[in-house]
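User: Before I run my own analysis I want an independent prediction to cross-check against. Here's the chain; please return only the structure tokens and, at the end, one sentence I can use as a sanity check.
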Amino acid sequence: MFEVKPDDRKVYEERIRDFLPERIIDVHTHVWLERFRSSYNDPRRIVTWPDRVAKDSPIEELLATYELMFPGKKLTPLIFGAVLSRRDDLDGNNQYIAESMRKHHVPGLIWSVPQWSGEELERRIVEGGFLGVKSYLSNAPEYLPEAEIRIFDYFPPHQLDAINRRGWIMMLHIPRPGRLRDPVNLGQMLEIERKYPNIRLIVAHVGRAYCPEDVGNAFDVLAETKRMMFDISANTNAENFERLIRAVGPKRILFGSDLPITRMRMRRVCENGRYINLVQKGMYGDVSGDKNMREVDGEELTFFMYEEIAAFKRAAENTGLGRCDIEDVFFNNAMRLLEGV
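Assistant: Structure tokens:
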């Protein structure tokens, strides 16, 4: 596991604990075992720095993480796998998620690939007892350049039909270098809301808007939506949190952690529109070749998780959210979502 230092506990007690409700639902957690990951170094269309945090993430470790990081709180995760390469063991990972759901009485999502027919996706979700689906741009067809991948390349329309028919959850990590401001992303997000009104869409990481430059006019466009929800996982940008709150209101925002990634000790900054994770020297190996990582000396850093929550707290205070709003974001909205499914 990992050490919780006195300085971490001080951050939690002084900045985090009283802000959070007693019960919390975390809608964005990855669970997998190392044996499901391929040993081949295939191009994964994904940043690699999260791999420095954990080789695997068994369900017991996730639950123990909550106890270490959030004493006095009761947390329930929505779990799914982490299938990032075509050589990874997709079926083994999904089976492990289903077993973890049953053993620990927690909800979960299946990890899908676009090659499945709508009928196969539906069968797999029903047989596994899942509440919906998660996928990733790395599962899009190999011939597509990373910068040209669209949402519908890994969530094809025939699968959206099935998800819509059943009213299931769809956890969406959007693609493309422009992130949330990208007009293709925005157009397809709006198309999902319009054509598939029963899909319970969650846009992960506030649409990967980690820096102010990732937004463009997105929140003006998204303010017109009525149903899609946004999780705040692995994001520490208080300015974008504020813009999200003003655009869609607190009832369409969900707490997510992206564990185990948010166990990292770090502080995030933005430079020229790119996020950089500042980490303690030597803690995560040689990061000199990673454009999203930088070492610092002489600075005590706490958990990514606490940085995320502290940033949302600043945004909540600046937008005048009340206690009931915070309980909605961290518990009630997710509970309504899960009960609806």
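Sanity check: The chain has one domain: 6-263+304-340.
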